[in-house]
Specification:
- The protein is mainly alpha-helical.
- It has a domain at 5-145: Orthogonal Bundle (Lysozyme).
- The protein is 58% helix and 7% strand.
- The protein has eight helices and five strands, in the order H-E-E-E-H-H-H-H-E-E-H-H-H.
- The protein has helices at 5-15, 52-70, 80-100, 102-108, 115-119, 131-145, 169-191, 194-225, and strands at 18-23, 29-32, 35-36, 124-125, 128-129.
- Helix 1 packs antiparallel against helix 6 (131-145) and helix 2 (52-70) packs across helix 3 (80-100).
- 21% of the residues are buried.
Length: 228
């Protein structure tokens, strides 16, 4: 996994180039394309100045550093667009913010369709909502979901982006319940009259409905209690 040109362009667009050191929205000295001392050398100091060419080289080093740091945190295969969107996000919020975010949790749960909504929660700096962050999160979400055609080495065939949701334990439980009840119905129907069997089928149907409602209730409660 590596950042692509679309990811680099996104970072450059929303960071913007500044040749002179300045304080960002939360008071951190910044220069070039959003480079800070926390990202590594060079240390940013007041009155510091750099050329655009120098800023490009610093950005390349910073992006590579962030890419190396987030790779071990990602537990599922991603295409270049997905990875690039996450690098941009981490570049902006920092590795600590990325590590604790629900963005990363949704990625590792393979709930890719939920990632843009989770990105959109990170739009504040210094306690204030910033329009620039709103637009950036939207752009990152669009890039994450954008289709690509990555290839397996030597195969020459496009690889479909990984998608879909993990199989929840509740789904497995429901399947087991249905299978068990189906077996009981078959056994009972084999040794009883049709009328009695009909009563048993009705009772079994009520049990299935109750079990299904309980499972969906538990999943709804879980989704409501998950953090940002």
């Amino acid at each position: 996994m590596k950042i692509n040109q679309a990811g680099l362009d996104l970072i450059k667009k929303y960071e913007g180039f500044r040749s002179l050191a300045y304080r960002d929205a939360v008071g951190i000295w910044t220069i070039g394309y959003g480079h800070t001392s926390m990202a590594g050398p060079p240390k940013v100091t007041p009155k510091m100045s750099i050329t655009q060419q120098q800023a490009e080289r610093i950005l390349a080093r910073d992006v590579e550093r962030f890419s190396r740091q987030i790779r071990p945190l990602i537990q599922v295969p991603l295409n270049d667009n997905q990875f690039s969107a996450l690098v941009s996000f981490a570049y902006n919020v920092g590795i600590a913010g990325f590590r604790k975010s629900s963005v990363l949790r949704r990625v590792n749960d393979r709930r890719f369709e939920a990632v843009p909504a989770r990105l959109s929660l990170w739009i504040k700096a210094g306690g204030k909502t910033l329009n620039g962050l709103v637009r950036r999160r939207s752009a990152e979400g669009e890039l994450f979901l954008a289709e690509t055609s990555p290839k397996k080495p030597g195969s020459g065939r496009p690889v479909k982006p990984v998608s879909g949701k993990p199989v929840h334990k509740s789904t497995t439980n429901l399947a087991a319940i249905l299978s068990a009840i189906s077996g009981l119905i078959s056994a009972f129907m084999g040794g009883t009259g049709n009328q009695v069997g009909g009563y048993f089928v009705a009772i079994a149907a009520l049990v299935i409905i109750a079990a299904t409602l309980w499972i969906f209730r538990e999943r709804w409660i879980k989704s409501r209690t998950e953090g940002v």
